[in-house]
Design a protein that fits this description.
single chain; 3-stranded antiparallel β-sheet; 7 strands; alpha+beta; 2 domains
Length: 143
Amino acid sequence: MKTDRDHENKSEKNTGDRSVSYKKDIIFIGIFILVGLFLAAVVFLTKQTGKSVTVSVSGKDVISFNLDEDREYMIEGKDGGQNLLIIRGGKAWIEEANCRDGLCINMGKIDSVGQSVICLPNEVVVSIGSGEVTDEGPDIVVY
């Protein structure tokens, strides 16, 4: 037969176990946050500023520009699609597009190696590279 005293002892044990579990949760969350902050710092500190912009249409490189030269370029995409590329102040972005969703316009400005702006309906990819564009070779490749 259980008494009130047995019930009180079980309550004290459960409360003690919860306290230990709660402390472990706090430690785990703290470690998780510290690892996240460390990884974010590594990403931001190793970010490399790009030097060139390459435009690809349907998977083929069409033209490249130096990122430090301000310009506007109308990209002729798939099936008559058009995207207006702006390069200004060391950043590149799509200003206008005649695609049905316009997501490429909202992708923002890019300036770091590996970043890209993609317009899926027009099959256009604008990406940042680490090498500068030289005058050696053709400026435009037509297939």
